[in-house]
């Protein structure tokens, strides 16, 4: 492979192998590469919602304190390369091609064994570890779990710290029907003796995670017990809050991401910094951490991309995410009407997803997008038992119609899937300044 297009096309060609839980293929490839993952100081971030935002808060605080930070995240919003980034800069085309050429012979060889071909995500994970270990060597690498935890391809690492942001009803066809079953899969990232920080809110899920931490003799910190955040003030563009833990207090934290859940994600990141400091892995000043928090943003998470009319992109795609979106709209735009444009993947139960909006002044336009798992606009329309609804097959027309027919009382919200939000965001970037 000589070009980045060839490399990305090859990686995407592995998509038909789908999701194949298990670590044996990862272990096989990493052993052949002399275990790049063992040469890195990693922090593992799992959970249903909030992983990406927590990674971003943590990254910005680490950078503000002078550290080089690698991030491995998914899915991407703007470009494929951003999934593997150093200090916010995506892997270069040259480095991606180089790493892909080193991994491809192993993929071809592995495909001929009883283990079978690795998946697209396994190959991306391997490329990320190889890039960080051999080309950039950052001080820390923040690794976001892809799906679940216990059998996720990232779970081959032995991190300095594990974070579980939340437990929610998502990917239930894979992870289990109950919160306890899902929590069991998420808790699979907990390692022997490795500290754990939890932002999980449900008692039944907390108990599963705490039990796993105790079994692994891992130091355990729970939001709401060992640390907490308290809102001081907020407006349309910022939130001011206090962080309190047994060890320390940050009196005035400012973030520019909206919603109660973003303060909770920020508090997880601060607790992570505090724990890493206690363990002797880093040093920081409160002032630098506060600067990092203020600088934090995360594309596609209640992101205001246009004013007049106001267009908000939010990748909420499960019950808990939609509840957070509805609560954030109520908190920041209580007097507005919400014109919500929704596309989703086939396994989603639209009526459950939209339940938080039933008592709000909201209209719904269902659409679809070019993605192999995307549901049709007709299926979503038929599922949704809401009063004001429409189905539009071309999502661009749906957005344009909302723009052309809005009033000063309207907020346009695009949601339902991060993959969908990514497509809309790219299109809007070509027409307005995002």
**What is the SS-derived class?**
alpha/beta
The biggest beta sheet is recorded as: 8 strands, mixed
Regions with pLDDT < 50 over 5+ consecutive residues?
none
Helix content: 25-40%
- Return the average pLDDT rounded to an integer: 93
* Total number of beta strands: 17
- Summed up, the helix count is 15
Radius of gyration: 21 Å
Across the major sheet, the strand order is: 4-3-2-5-1-6-7-8
Oligomer: single chain
Query: What is the CA–CA distance across the termini?
Result: 33 Å
GO molecular function, one term: dihydrofolate synthase activity
Keywords: ATP-binding, Folate biosynthesis, Ligase, Magnesium, Metal-binding, Nucleotide-binding
Family: Belongs to the folylpolyglutamate synthase family.
Enzyme class: ligase
Layout of secondary structure:
Blueprint: H1 4-12, H2 24-32, E1 42-46, H3 51-64, E2 69-72, E3 84-86, E4 89-90, H4 93-111, H5 120-136, E5 140-144, E6 161-164, H6 172-175, H7 179-186, E7 196-198, H8 203-215, E8 220-222, E9 227-234, E10 239-245, E11 249-255, H9 260-278, H10 286-295, E12 303-306, E13 310-313, H11 319-332, E14 337-342, H12 350-354, E15 362-368, H13 377-383, E16 389-394, H14 395-404, E17 410-415, H15 418-429
Parallel strand pairs: 1-5, 1-6, 2-5, 6-7, 7-8, 13-17, 14-15, 14-17, 15-16
Antiparallel strand pairs: 2-3, 3-4, 9-10, 10-11, 12-13
Helix pairs in contact: 1-4, 2-4, 3-9, 3-10, 4-5, 7-8
């Amino acid at each position: 492979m000589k070009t980045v297009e060839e490399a990305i096309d090859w990686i995407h060609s592995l998509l038909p192998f789908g999701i194949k839980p298990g670590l044996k293929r990862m272990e096989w490839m990493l052993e052949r590469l002399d275990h790049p993952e063992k040469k890195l100081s990693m922090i593992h971030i799992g959970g249903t919602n909030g992983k990406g935002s927590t990674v971003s808060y943590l990254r910005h605080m680490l950078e503000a304190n002078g550290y080089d930070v690698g991030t491995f995240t998914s899915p991407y919003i703007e470009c494929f390369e951003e999934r593997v980034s150093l200090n916010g800069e995506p892997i270069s085309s040259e480095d991606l091609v180089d790493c892909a050429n080193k991994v491809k012979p192993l993929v071809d060889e592995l495909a001929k064994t009883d283990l079978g071909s690795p998946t697209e995500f396994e190959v991306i994970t391997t490329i990320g570890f190889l890039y960080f270990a051999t080309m950039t060597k950052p001080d820390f690498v923040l690794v976001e779990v892809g799906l679940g935890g216990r059998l996720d391809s990232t779970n081959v690492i032995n991190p300095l710290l594990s974070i579980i942001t939340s437990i929610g009803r998502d990917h239930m066809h894979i992870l289990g029907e109950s919160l306890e079953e899902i929590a069991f899969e998420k808790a699979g990232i907990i390692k022997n003796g490795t500290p754990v920080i939890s932002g999980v809110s449900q008692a039944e899920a907390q108990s599963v995670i705490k039990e796993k931490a105790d079994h692994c003799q891992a130091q355990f910190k729970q939001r709401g017990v060992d640390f907490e955040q308290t809102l001081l003030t907020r407006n349309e563009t910022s939130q001011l809050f206090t962080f309190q833990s047994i060890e320390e207090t940050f009196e005035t934290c400012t973030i520019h991401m909206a919603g109660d859940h973003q303060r909770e994600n920020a508090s997880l990141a601060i607790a992570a910094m505090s724990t890493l400091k206690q363990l002797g892995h880093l040093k920081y000043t409160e002032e630098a951490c506060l600067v990092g928090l203020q600088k934090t943003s995360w594309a596609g998470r209640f992101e205001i991309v246009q004013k007049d009319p106001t267009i908000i992109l939010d990748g909420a795609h499960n019950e808990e995410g939609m509840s957070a979106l509805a609560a954030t709209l109520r908190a920041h735009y209580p007097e507005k009407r919400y014109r919500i444009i929704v596309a989703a993947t086939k396994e989603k139960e639209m009526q459950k997803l939209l339940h938080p909006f039933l008592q709000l002044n909201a209209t719904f336009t269902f659409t679809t997008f070019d993605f192999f798992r995307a549901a049709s606009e007709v299926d979503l329309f038929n599922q949704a038992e809401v009063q004001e609804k429409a189905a539009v097959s071309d999502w661009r027309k749906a957005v344009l119609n909302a723009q052309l027919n809005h009033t000063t009382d309207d907020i346009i919200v695009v949601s339902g899937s991060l993959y969908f939000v990514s497509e809309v965001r790219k299109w809007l970037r070509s027409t307005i300044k995002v």
